[in-house]
């Protein structure tokens, strides 16, 4: 099945932010962090988040003058939601695989582009102990009959990465094994090496687009906007289940369980906020999940896993959301006016420092050219 990428509206008002489900890259509606009320759980409806993309504008009807106008640029095609802009021919993909001797990175880049599960299975056969391959196979459920075996292998080859424990906890939840869930969450909380391999995935895609003749700016934009983030949907689902468990424990007056789940859940939310491409949308997903775990706590209480009262942190999260919305509005304007050099710098900075930092840089660039 060929993967398609639907470009959704980024945000034209204070309550709109798009979300993308990474299995099919189809538009799934606004993130709950901006679309729902503050006192409602958001993780049940939130879909995974991609880097910001331009707001959609209604395409004008084609006139005689437009029919003879110069071809649109790659960026103009992205703005117009032309999904063909992300595609490459079979010959281009095969040439890339051959040039890279069908290594793990090239197989995963090719899969990201055309969605052929056989590429994932081939990567698993060739590189069974490669953490990048294991994450991709698990995230796309390419070998469901080997899932438990693959999870244990992932733990072995990436012992400091809590992602393996989070994915295992989700499996245990599905199998209604709460004690094993808590055990995996405790193990995850003791690790600091979270990595979902999105940056490696972006790098492989960028090299694939460069090999097909795209300019550096085009390759960076296409890779960053078209990359899969297959670990985010299961992490989102795990967070939603844990938040529901926390609320149930609170309703039963089980404060010890509430605090235990909140501690693990807040750690998960922090990792989600910095996962993937570290886009503003992913940041909002993480903060939305954080808010869900905080709302079950006493807003004025003191907890050893919180540096401040829960109510104070909730107010901060609300302020953060408004700042992110401002960034979205600026991005929609700036992206269509940026030159190639600026685009290269923007996506490089996003990869290194996250989208919030990249947007601050873009704002500084814009201010330098404003008339005084």
State the helical fraction.
Answer: 55-70%
| Mean pLDDT metric | 83
State the strand order across the main sheet: 1-2
- Uncertain residue ranges: 1-50, 54-66
| Count of alpha/pi helices | 18
The biggest sheet, with number of strands, parallel, antiparallel or mixed sense and barrel status, is: 2 strands, antiparallel
Tell me the strand percentage band.
under 5%
Distance between the termini: 54 Å
Structural class: mainly alpha
- Give the number of DSSP strands: 2
Give the SSE string: EEHHHHHHHHHHHHHHHHHH
From the spread of the alpha carbons, the general shape counts as flat
What is the gyration radius calculated from CA atoms? 21 Å
Describe the structure.
- The protein has a two-stranded antiparallel sheet with strand order 1-2.
- The chain contains 18 helices and two strands.
- The N terminus is likely disordered.
- 44% of the residues are buried.
- With 372 residues, it is mainly α.
- Strand 1 and strand 2 form a beta hairpin.
- The longest helix has 26 residues.
Topology (elements, then pairings):
Blueprint: E1 18-21, E2 26-30, H1 32-35, H2 64-67, H3 74-79, H4 90-99, H5 104-114, H6 117-126, H7 131-139, H8 147-157, H9 163-174, H10 178-189, H11 198-211, H12 216-226, H13 232-251, H14 255-273, H15 280-294, H16 310-335, H17 340-353, H18 355-369
